């Protein structure tokens, strides 16, 4: 009895591990039908979602028209165009548009302010700062 029960168990283990199973003659046909049904369900689901999204987009567009809003893509396109064409005297123009020599003036002004302050300090303090 024990030997026969072991062989039955090993037969089942072989099936679980991917061994030879009893072949159903219609198994291939059933599998193809199942795959086709899954494909149809997926296509129906995608079509349903596309319809729902189209309806949502229609409602979004009505809201945009009502309140004068723009799509995100339109906003980004306008912002890029604005950056590419900076206005004369704009406060937000790119750094490379600043003429050469404009940024150097700040350091000179700071030095002249320091010199002016030194003039008004008493003599011993002036000597300390000059060293």
UniProtKB/TrEMBL annotation:
One GO CC annotation: perikaryon
InterPro entries according to UniProt: Synaphin
GO process terms (BP): regulation of neurotransmitter secretion; synaptic vesicle exocytosis
Basic and acidic residues bias (residue ranges): 12-82
Top-rank taxon, per record: Eukaryota
Start and end residues of each stretch annotated as Disordered: 1-113
Matches recorded under SUPFAM superfamilies: SNARE fusion complex
Pfam families, sorted: Synaphin (PF05835)
Bias-annotated ranges (Acidic residues): 103-113
GO molecular function: syntaxin binding
UniProt feature coiled coil, ranges: none
Binding partners and assembly: Binds to the SNARE core complex containing SNAP25, VAMP2 and STX1A.
Protein name: Complexin-2
The gene coding this protein: Cplx2
């Amino acid at each position: 009895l024990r030997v026969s029960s072991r062989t039955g168990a090993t037969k089942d283990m072989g099936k679980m591990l991917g061994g030879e199973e009893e072949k159903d003659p219609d198994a291939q046909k059933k599998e193809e039908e199942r795959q086709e049904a899954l494909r149809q369900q997926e296509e129906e689901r995608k079509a349903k979602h596309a319809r729902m999204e189209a309806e949502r987009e229609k409602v979004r567009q009505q809201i945009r028209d009502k309140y004068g809003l723009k799509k995100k893509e339109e906003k980004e396109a306008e912002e890029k165009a604005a950056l590419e064409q900076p206005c004369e005297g704009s406060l937000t123009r790119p750094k490379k548009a600043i003429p050469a020599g404009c940024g150097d003036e700040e350091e000179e002004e700071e030095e002249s302010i320091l010199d002016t302050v030194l003039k008004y300090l008493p003599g011993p303090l002036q000597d300390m700062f000059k060293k």
